[in-house]
Amino acid sequence: MFIRQEYIPAAIGKQVFKTKEDAEKMGKVVLVKLSQDKFPAISIRDLDANNINFRKI
Q1: Looking at the domain assignment, is residue 3 inside a domain?
Q2: Which domain holds residue 43?
């Protein structure tokens, strides 16, 4: 599956992932949620739990 997300979901403004690895981590979170029949939205809690670096305003 290919997931395209230009900006970090849940983050304020148009922030991009700092690394490819960060984007891939969150892609895996989305896939897990889909496989569990959950809504694939990403929250601030998901970002923090995966140590994603983003600006918190």
Answers
A1: no
A2: 20-49
Contacts of 25 (CB under 8 A, 6+ apart): 50, 52
Q: Model-level pTM?
A: 0.88
Alpha helices in 1-57 (DSSP H): 20-35, 44-49
Residues 6 or more apart from 26 whose CB is under 8 A from it? 5, 8, 9, 17, 42, 46, 47, 50, 52
**Tens digits of per-residue pLDDT, 18-55?**
999 999 999 999 999 999 999 999 999 999 999 999 99
Number of domains composing the chain: 1
30 domain residue, yes or no: yes
